[in-house]
Amino acid sequence: FLMQTSEMLRKICMRNLVRKYCRGLTAERKVQLQQKVVTSAVFSGKKEGYLESLSQPFLETRLKENDLNPKVLQLIRGENIKYVTPVIKYDRNGFKARERLLVLTQSSAYVVEMAKIKQKIEYSTLKGISTSNLSDGIVVIHVPEDNKQKGDVILQCEHVFETVTKLCMLANKQSLVKVVKGSLRFRVGSGKEGTMVFTVGPEPQVFKDKTGQLTVV
């Protein structure tokens, strides 16, 4: 009987401590925890660097709204901008690296070049998000095969865990994130596909190999 009472009191005490902790959380801290839970579900035990990312708080955004070109702001007026981060975008054909911004609003993701919107992906049409199991920052945003889209978007993000978490939460498509090993296929456009190969080497690099594949080291 004493053992049962002790166990019951222990559970009540633990419940009270948890309730007290939750009530004391700031709104910002609560958002952080919600995001980290999603990151864990997507990446834990799957991608290198996940454990190191646990101690790094996610920022609300990497760039402010007023850092964007006024023409871009005008083009996406009416949409609530949630997150902006610098990225490297790789062309789908020649794989040339280009500096871009990834802008996430409440309803869409935009790939932006200075004053131009290069590509818009509505979350409702998003087909998938792929990353590798290695420590690179490559993210592939898979889009539908239609006339509105040029093909899948290949990006390199410095804060890959943060960016993917923000994207899949805003799109409400956590289940569409895939962490792949070895290689992945992406759509180039006009019914064509390309291959990306992930490997390990002495220094990080991304290049087009002799077979025409995009190789990520």
Automatic annotation (TrEMBL):
Pfam families: Myosin_TH1. Residues 47-217 form the TH1 domain. One of its GO terms (molecular function) is cytoskeletal motor activity. Coiled coil: none annotated. GO terms for cellular component: myosin complex. This is MYO1H protein.
